[in-house]
Structures are given as C-alpha cells and as structure tokens.
C-alpha cells in the first residue's frame, strides 16, 4: 500500500531519502544467518521423546538459524568491551568526586549508573538472536496430504478457534473489522477445523448486522479465494494491490472475469455495510413512530432488528438495560459448523456468475458474541472479552489451539495458521510451547514512519533475541495459544508424571466457575488429535452460552488471575505471556514472508503517545505487582527474567532523562559550571561509550535486516517517550501504588482511511491533526529549554567575541595566551552546542507533529528555529549589556556551558 504513494507528495520523504538510499537492507536479507546444526536438533528431539517415555516419529517442522559468527562474535565482543568501559567509567567517577555542585554530581552519578544498568538489561536480551523458519511443505505432507482439497476429513491438522475483538463500529471502522473477518473465513486452513468468535464489546446492532452481511458475502468471497488461490484474502487489501502476482489457481482462463464480478459484489457489500448506519436508525424510528414495540418498551425509543424485534444490545438512544455498560449477553451462531465432507458449488448461472463446480463452498463456523455488561462490574476491557470468548468457544468447538486478533488486524498470508502449527506440533519443543507470536506489521503508516509505528527494532531485533531464550513476549494480537496453557496447565517438561493435565481438574468449579458443560470440556481441550465436534445449539446450550457470557459468572473464580487473560492491568498482553513463561512454558517467534498479518497503527501523535503511555504504564504496573519478573520462580529462564525486567522497568529511566534534558536551564542563569572535573576525561568516556553503542547498533541492524531509518526512528521515539510519556507513566504507577486508580485502557482510534471507504480522503490526514493534551507539554518544555540554551550560547558568543576584542586590544602582549584560552572556550561551547542540537534532532518528529498541517513544509520549522534563536540571542546580549558593563563580560565566559550541555544529552540514547 505504501508503494502507491508518490514520493514527491510527501515532504518528509525528501528529508530522509538520503538515509533510505544509504542503508536499504531488505528484511529478506538472510545472508547473516546460518542454520544451527541439524544433527543437534534431532538429538534434542529424540531426547525429548525419550523423556516423555516413548518413541516420537513426529517430523521436525522448522529449521533454526543463528547469526553468523562473523557478525555475532564481534557483536558480543564489542558489548563486552563496552561493559568494561562502563564499569571503569564508574570507578573513575567515584574516585574523582570533583564538581562545581556535589548535589548535581550525585544526581548524575546515580543517573548514569541507572543508564548503565538499563543498557545492560536491554543489551542482554539481544545477545543470542535465533530465527526459526517453519517448513509448511513438510507439515502438509504429514498432516494434510493432498486430496483433502483444502478441507475434508483427510486432514489431520488440529482445530483452531479464532478470536477477534472490536468495540466501536466508528472508532474501529466496521468495514476494516469485516475485512479481517473475511480474511479469516477465507484462510487456507481446513474449513471444518477452524471456528471464528467475534466479540463485540459495544453490543451494537451495526456490528451484528454487518457480520450477517459478511457471512453472506463470504459465500462468494471464500470460494473465489479458494478457486484462484488469491492473496491476501482481505478484499480491501486484495483489490487495492496491483494484480501482478503470479496466478496460483486452477482456472486461469476464468480469473479476470471472476475477479471483476467479485469486485463488483464487494463494492455492493461495502455499500450495504455503510448503509447500516442509516438503515438501522431509520427502521427504528419508523417502528417507534408506529409504537409497535413487541416486547415491552417502557416508553424508551428502541433500536429494532430487521425482523422487527428489539435489539437486546445497546440502543441508539440509550435506555435502561440497553446502553453502553448495561445490556444482556448475546451469543449467536451465524454460520454453523460445516460437515466434514466437501461440498462442491454449482456451475455458473444467472444467479451465481462464478463457476464453483470444482470448489468446496463450505464456510467455517462463525459466532457473534456481545458479553453481558452491568454497572458495578469491572469489565476488564479486552482481557475480559477474550475470557468470554474462551468459555463460549469451549462449549461449541473447543479447539485445542486459539489464535487472537485485534479487530483491525487481518490475515495477510493464508499460510499463517499452518506456520504456527509447525511450531506447536514439532517434536522438539512443540508440546512445551504455549504460544506462537507473529510480528505486528502495519499498513497505512506514513512512508518515513514518523512516529516509529513499525517498531522494527522491537519486532526484528529484540523479539528474535528473546526467541533465543524462552521465547518472545506476547504482544496482544496475531498470537496462537495452546488452550490448556491458558487454562493454567503446566508444560509437560515441568509435569512430574509427564504430560497429564490432571491438575487442571482439581476443584474445577472454584477455578473455572459453575458451568458443567464448560468443566466437561476441560479434559478434551488438551487433545489435539480430537476430531472436530459441533453440538447443535438447542435451548439448553443457548442458555448455557449466555450464562458463561455474564458478568457474574467469574465471581469468586480464578478467571483473569490463574486462568485466561490476566486482569487489572492496561497491558494484558505482556503479563499474560509472562505468566506462561513463569510456569515454564516456551513461546516461539514466527516472522514470515509475506507478512502473516497486518493491521493499522495510529499515525496521530497524540494517539500514539497515549498508546505508549498505556504500554509503559502497564509495564511499570506489572513490575510493581505480584507479577514482577524478579519474583518469579526458577522455571523462568535467567535471561528471560532479565528481558522481562528490562521490558517492565524502562519507564523509570525517564525520570532521569527528563531531568537531564532540563539541565541547560541552569546554564541560562550564567556562571561557569562543570558537573565533573577533569571535564576532558569525562567527555572522553562519554564519547567512547556513545561511539561503541552506535557501532553495536549498526551491527544489530545488519542481522535484524533493518534500515538506518528504522533505527533512527527508534532512537527518536525513545527520546520522545522519555521526555513526555514515561514520566507520566511513572507518576501513574506511583499513584496506583498508593491505592489510586491505574491506567485506563484508552482505545486507540484507527485511521479511517484504512477502511478504504473514502478513497478521496487525504492520506495520513491524522498525521497532520494536532490534538493538544497534557502529555505533549513536557516535551515542548524540553524543546524550549534546549532551543533557549542554543540561543543564549549564540548570544554569549556574540558578547564574548566583542569583549575578547577589547581585551586583546588592551593587552597586546598576552595576545597568544588569550587566544588559546578563547579557543578552548569556543571548542567547549561547540561541544555543548552539539549536544543540544542532538536533543533537538531526536525530538524532531515531535516538533513536526505539533506543527500540524504546517509540517507539510518542514523547512518552515527551520525558519522558525532560526528566528527564535536570533530573538533569544539578541535578548541575551541585551540582558548581558545591562547586567555587565563593557569590559567585565569575560567574567561570565562561555566555559560553563559544555559541562551542562554534555549532561543535557548523555542519557538520551547512549546507554540504551
Ligand atoms: O474494552 C475493550 C477495549 C479494547 N478491545 C479490543 O482490544 C484491541 C486492542 O485495542 P487498541 O485500541 O487497538 O489498542 P492498540 O494500542 O492498538 O493495541 C496494542 O496494545 C494492546 C495492549 O495494550 C494489545 O492488547 C493489542 O493487541 C496491541 O495491538 C482492539 O481490537 C479492541 O477492539 C476490546 O475488545 N474491549
Ligand atoms: Mn490496534
């Protein structure tokens, strides 16, 4: 999608195009990866099988790669050297307690120490990167041999329950969500072996009816995808892409016609979905006008379903029991479980223009869920919604594996479910693997990724690093789980009797709640070979389904604690993954080409900042809770513990960074000042430290396959977070510690353009939309202080130059000495200046962000900057002239500046 944008239309692209061309590395570039010895893998597999007391003929379904020694050894050596230098640096500082202010000296020693530690934590997670590549062909050969026709009973692949979540049909454009559903309904996995559970946390009729429309359209879309094997299977993205992929289906002659017809049908489908926003209110107001409320009504203006009955969920005009946060549970099977025999479609006819006579036209099961909402209950947001999905699905399809998606994430590569299975079924660690995490990839991010939405350093470096220990953390979407693990089972390798789930069944009612059908489903949940079951939804089952979706069901149970997704935290993902790792489960990272899934990301600065506020606040809350990685037992891998500590403690660095960034304030008041003497040695240590980190970063982007721009964006966004967001997160966590409310889960609004509805709309409009929020203030302050520092430095230089001329003129004999002195001062000042400029460079995306539409012309920012600098400099000179009459200006000297200037930047990215 991004490739469709003309370069010239995008100003920032020109600014950064140099970076692009300088360091383009494709993520496919795998020349830095070498296979880990396969014999070793086999040995591990055999040992694992023996450990479980039996032969294991299962195939090895993935290959493991590590970074080539040519890169890895220097990388590790470099980091070792850096560690030694950092330690030496501290020894040196402690031995030289010499500063113009001992208070500041102590602050910076503590601060620098903290940065050293957090650098170490961060680096430690990346020392052993491992990449695993699934072998889909082998999986298919063993579990889904040809003849099954993409479905049918010959397949031995395990069943998968797919969870997808949404809240609001406007904030999360319903068409985007329905595209995700379509991509799931059409995915390349045996149709009778996956079922989709759609959770609508808004309880809105728009979602319900849109899902009905989607189920209808899928009857055409899914067979079309199967017949012509098209990718990706989300229609919006499919039709937006150029149709130049090599044809993979069996009927090339019919492709062009079929595609055109389906596209037309898709346009009509879109129009019908769009029309729901007007059709439903219209239908309801007509019905209300007639006063033909079938079930009570009590004077409220009801929202009507198509069949003329009241919608049990939220109404357009909120009423008692029909409003946000207060409505009944709704569970509706929209597509029933298909039989396990393929059903071929019909030849082309006037009513169905596609020839589907050779295509299996069955659709997978699809269920709509709106859980009950009652005032007085904490609904626990996404985690609460997914736990309801977990119970509802247990009563219906009860698949041993579960994959979950945010409403805006669609399947981009139909092989994804199979890829995940390669890890789950592998003979080596398969049985001990609780989840397989895929990277998050995004469409509709601006081409230069101003706010680091792609997060490549995290997804392509850090998570590969974790993959070399116990496994990647869970990041909320695009993750396949083992159901038994979510229920709280122990991994086989930590089970004394080898592989039984009996412990799960100890006092099940207390743990899982009172539903007998649910409890009866527990023993089956662990059996991956179990054939798919699909009980008919009779009255009793319907009542049971509604019951497990009520608020009260979880009262006094372990849901949200020992069972299911974890509650009471803004980042349910990290902590849920952590709890599994803590039990000794492994996880696997699966990055594939083309990307398995794609989603949307907030391109608006304020949205993005709130998102990272939720992440950083949630992480810190986790650190300060019972789920602190330091408190975990011995089943947590040592390095995994280090990584989780890093992942949860990082916002604390912010307190220091923020203070450091404001230090230039001090200099504005004038006076010579060194934070550490001798300053030259101090500066040298800092310089070497930074240089080594930069080099190490360059090695990292090599093996991770990143671009220099990815890396720079990461640095920049770290700094932006550190100045404004992380301090707020620290504050929130402190408030929570003293018993006040924790961070809310603020829904991230999705870009409207992602749904494609209004193609005429400006692309990335949200990028230029400034929404002022308190969160922006601290960063603005830091920018102001650093700009002021530069301005004042300029002013000082002007004033100083003038006084220097006077001094020189008066005492010609000492000219040489005076020159030398002046030179040292100027060099020092230049160094300080450099540091301030660096802060500003790191905050550059932020500055663009608050310029709003003006940022379409980035040069305006520079004009503004120069104007402000001139103004400050002149003001400074004027003030100096008043305070210090000619001749005594030299007493101020610019000398103090470098010390403070140096400090102002040091933390930003040197250690991290
Ligand atoms: O009450 C709620 C609130 C949210 N959601 C869903 O949760 C998902 C994620 O919400 P979103 O606002 O898109 O958050 P993001 O910041 O984009 O999400 C990232 O961060 C979250 C944790 O903070 C993870 O759960 C997500 O998977 C990850 O993509 C969406 O599908 C929502 O519909 C609910 O189902 N119920
Ligand atoms: Mn999202």
From TrEMBL:
Where is it located?
Golgi apparatus membrane
Q: Which residues cross the membrane?
A: 73-91, 103-122, 643-663, 683-705, 717-735, 772-793, 800-823, 829-847, 859-884
Q: Which UniProt keywords are given for this protein, alphabetically ordered?
A: Cell wall biogenesis/degradation, Glycosyltransferase, Golgi apparatus, Membrane, Transferase, Transmembrane, Transmembrane helix
User: Where does the chain bind Mn(2+)?
Assistant: 382, 406
Q: Which Gene3D superfamilies match?
A: Spore Coat Polysaccharide Biosynthesis Protein SpsA, Chain A
Q: Which domain of life is it from?
A: Eukaryota
Task: Tell me the SUPFAM superfamilies matching this sequence.
Answer: Nucleotide-diphospho-sugar transferases (SSF53448)
In terms of one coarse class, where is the protein primarily found? Golgi
Q: State where UDP-alpha-D-glucose binds.
A: 172, 201, 381
Q: Name one GO molecular function term.
A: cellulose synthase (UDP-forming) activity
Record-linked InterPro entries? Cellulose_synth, Nucleotide-diphossugar_trans
Which cellular components does GO assign to this protein? Golgi membrane
Catalytic residues identified in the record: 201, 573
An example GO biological process term is: cellulose biosynthetic process
- Pfam short name (any one): Cellulose_synt
Topology relative to the lipid bilayer, per the entry, is:
Multi-pass membrane protein
**PANTHER family per UniProt:** X-BOX TRANSCRIPTION FACTOR-RELATED (PTHR13301)
- The protein here is known as Uncharacterized protein
Species in which this protein is naturally found: Paspalum notatum var. saurae
């Amino acid at each position: 999608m991004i490739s469709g944008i003309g370069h010239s239309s995008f100003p920032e692209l020109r600014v950064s195009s140099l970076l692009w061309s300088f360091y383009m590395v494709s993520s496919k570039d795998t020349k830095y990866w070498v296979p880990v010895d396969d014999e070793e893998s086999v040995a591990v597999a055999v040992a694992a099988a023996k450990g479980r007391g039996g032969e294991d003929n299962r195939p090895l379904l993935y290959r493991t790669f590590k970074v080539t020694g040519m890169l890895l050894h220097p990388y590790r050596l470099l980091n070792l050297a850096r560690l030694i230098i950092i330690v030496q640096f501290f020894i040196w500082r402690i031995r030289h307690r010499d500063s113009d202010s001992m208070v500041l000296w102590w602050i910076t020693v503590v601060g620098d120490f903290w940065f050293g530690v957090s650098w170490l934590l961060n680096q430690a997670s990346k020392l052993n990167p491992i990449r695993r590549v699934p072998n889909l062909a082998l999986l298919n050969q063993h579990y889904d041999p040809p003849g099954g026709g993409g479905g049918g009973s010959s397949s031995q692949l395990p069943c998968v329950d797919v969870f997808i979540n949404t809240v609001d049909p406007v904030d999360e454009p319903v068409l985007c969500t329905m595209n995700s559903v379509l991509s799931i309904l059409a995915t390349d996995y045996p149709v009778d072996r996956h079922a989709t559970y759609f959770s609508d946390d808004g309880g809105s009729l728009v979602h319900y009816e849109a899902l009905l429309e989607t189920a209808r359209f899928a009857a055409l879309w899914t067979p079309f995808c199967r017949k012509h094997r098209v990718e990706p299977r989300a229609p919006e993205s499919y039709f937006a892409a150029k149709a130049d992929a090599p044809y993979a289906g069996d009927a090339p002659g019919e492709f062009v016609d079929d595609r055109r017809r389906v596209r037309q049908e898709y346009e009509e489908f879109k129009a019908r979905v769009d029309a729901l926003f007007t059709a439903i209110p219209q239908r309801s107001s007509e019905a209300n006008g007639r006063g033909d409320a079938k079930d009570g009504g009590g004077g409220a203006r009801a929202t009507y379903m198509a069949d003329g009955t009241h919608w049990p969920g939220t109404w357009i005009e909120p009423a008692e029991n029909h409003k946000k946060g207060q409505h009944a549970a709704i569970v509706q099977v929209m597509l029933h479980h298909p039989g396990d025999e393929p059903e071929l479609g019909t030849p082309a006819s006037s009513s169905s223009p596609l020839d589907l006579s050779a295509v299996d036209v069955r659709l997978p099961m699809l269920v709509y869920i709106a859980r009950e909402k009652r005032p007085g209950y904490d609904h626990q947001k996404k985690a609460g919604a997914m736990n309801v999905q977990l119970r509802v699905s247990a009563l219906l399809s009860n698949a041993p594996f579960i994959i979950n998606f945010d409403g805006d994430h669609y399947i981009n590569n139909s092989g994804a479910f199979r890829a995940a299975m390669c890890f789950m079924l592998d003979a080596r660690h398969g049985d001990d693997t609780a989840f397989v995490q895929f990277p998050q990839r995004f469409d509709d991010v601006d081409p230069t990724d101003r706010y680091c939405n792609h997060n490549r350093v995290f997804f392509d470096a850090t998570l590969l690093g974790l993959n070399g220990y116990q496994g990647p953390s869970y990041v909320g979407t695009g993750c396949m789980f083992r159901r038994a693990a979510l229920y709280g089972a122990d991994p086989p390798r930590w089970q004394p009797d080898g592989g039984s789930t009996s412990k799960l069944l100890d006092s099940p009612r207390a743990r899982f709640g009172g539903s007998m059908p649910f409890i009866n489903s527990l023993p089956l949940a662990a059996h991956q070979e179990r054939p798919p079951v699909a009980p008919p939804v009779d009255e009793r089952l319907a009542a049971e389904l509604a019951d497990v979706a009520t608020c009260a069901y979880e009262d006094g149970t372990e849901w949200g604690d020992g069972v299911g997704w974890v509650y009471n935290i803004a980042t349910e993902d990290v902590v849920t993954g952590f709890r599994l790792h803590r039990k000794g489960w492994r996880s696997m990272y699966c990055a594939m080409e083309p990307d398995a899934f794609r989603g949307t990301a907030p391109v608006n600065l304020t949205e993005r900042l709130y998102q990272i506020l939720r992440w950083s606040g949630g992480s810190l809350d986790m650190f300060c809770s019972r789920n602190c990685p330091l408190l975990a037992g011995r089943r947590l891998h040592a390095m995994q513990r280090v990584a989780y500590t890093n992942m949860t403690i990082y916002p604390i660095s912010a307190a220091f960074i923020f203070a450091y960034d404001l230090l230039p304030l001090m200099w504005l008041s004038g006076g010579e000042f060194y934070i550490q003497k001798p300053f030259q040695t101090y500066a040298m240590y800092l310089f070497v430290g930074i240089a080594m980190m930069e080099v190490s970063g360059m090695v990292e982007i090599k093996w991770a396959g990143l671009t220099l721009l990815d890396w720079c964006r990461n640095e920049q966004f770290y700094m932006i977070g550190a100045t404004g967001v992380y301090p707020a997160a620290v504050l929130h966590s402190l408030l929570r510690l003293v018993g006040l409310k924790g961070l809310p889960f603020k829904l991230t609004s999705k870009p409207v353009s992602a749904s494609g509805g209004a193609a005429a709309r400006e692309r990335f409009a949200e990028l230029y939309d400034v929404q002022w929020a308190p969160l922006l203030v601290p960063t603005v302050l830091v920018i102001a202080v650093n700009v002021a520092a530069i301005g004042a430095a300029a002013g000082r230089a002007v004033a100083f130059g003038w006084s220097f001329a006077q001094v020189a003129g008066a005492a010609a004999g000492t000219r040489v000495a005076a020159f030398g002195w002046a030179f040292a001062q100027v060099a020092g000042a230049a160094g300080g200046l450099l540091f301030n400029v660096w802060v500003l460079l790191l905050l550059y995306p932020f500055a663009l962000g608050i310029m709003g539409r003006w940022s379409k012309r980035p040069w305006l920012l520079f004009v503004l900057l120069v104007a402000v600098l001139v103004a400050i400099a002149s003001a400074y000179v004027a003030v100096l002239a008043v305070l210090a009459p000619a001749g005594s200006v030299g007493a101020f000297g610019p000398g103090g500046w470098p010390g403070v200037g140096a400090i102002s930047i040091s933390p930003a990215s040197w250690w991290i």
